Amino acid sequence: MNFQVPQFIEVEDKIFGPLTFKQFIYLAGGAGAAFMVYTFLPFVLALLPMAAIVIFALALAFYKANNRPFVNMLESAFRYLLTTKLYLWKKQERTATSSKITLGIEKPLEIPKLSQSKLRDLAWSLDVKENIR
């Protein structure tokens, strides 16, 4: 038996002309909200809220940020704002430290800067440890 494998499953179906169901709901909701503002406020005062509602509805329906729907970006923003945040690291200013270390000996031990050769550094650290003992 041959079965057909569905293709293009991530593409939503166009139900209302060139619009998907979600796009239609966003635009219808935006138009309804703009109409409610228009009926309850005088026209001059309703222009700014109506424009904001229409722009928001258009962004929900059509705008994609980084190839992801605007709704996902809003959801992520609200989740970030409402959840508690855990700060694991905070940078602190370092104080200047001396490169001289005293180990209970009258003469301070000078530690040289790191050199190019790790083998030379290892040999130096072994020699210093032997001299301390």
Could you describe the 3D structure shown?
- It is a single chain.
- The chain is mainly alpha-helical and 133 residues long.
- The protein folds into two domains: 69 residues; 33 residues, no CATH class.
- It is 51% helix and 10% strand.
- Strands 1-2 form a two-stranded antiparallel ribbon. A two-stranded antiparallel sheet has the order 3-4.
- 5% of the residues are buried.
Determine the N-to-C terminus distance. 83 Å
Largest sheet properties: 2 strands, antiparallel
Which class best fits the helix and strand makeup?
mainly alpha
Structure summary, number of beta strands: 6
The ordered H/E elements are: EEHHEEHEEH
Strand order of the largest sheet: 1-2
Strand content: 5-15%
Average pLDDT over all residues: 83
Number of helices: 4
Overall number of structural domains: 2
Give helix % range.
Answer: 40-55%
Shape: elongated
- Return Rg in Å: 34 Å
Low-confidence stretches: none
Keywords:
133 residues; mainly alpha; 2 domains; two-stranded antiparallel sheet; two-stranded antiparallel ribbon; 6 strands
What is the structure about, briefly put?
The protein has 133 residues and is mostly helical. The protein has helices at 21-40, 43-62, 70-82, 118-132; strands spanning 14-16, 19-20, 64-65, 68-69, 100-101, 109-110.
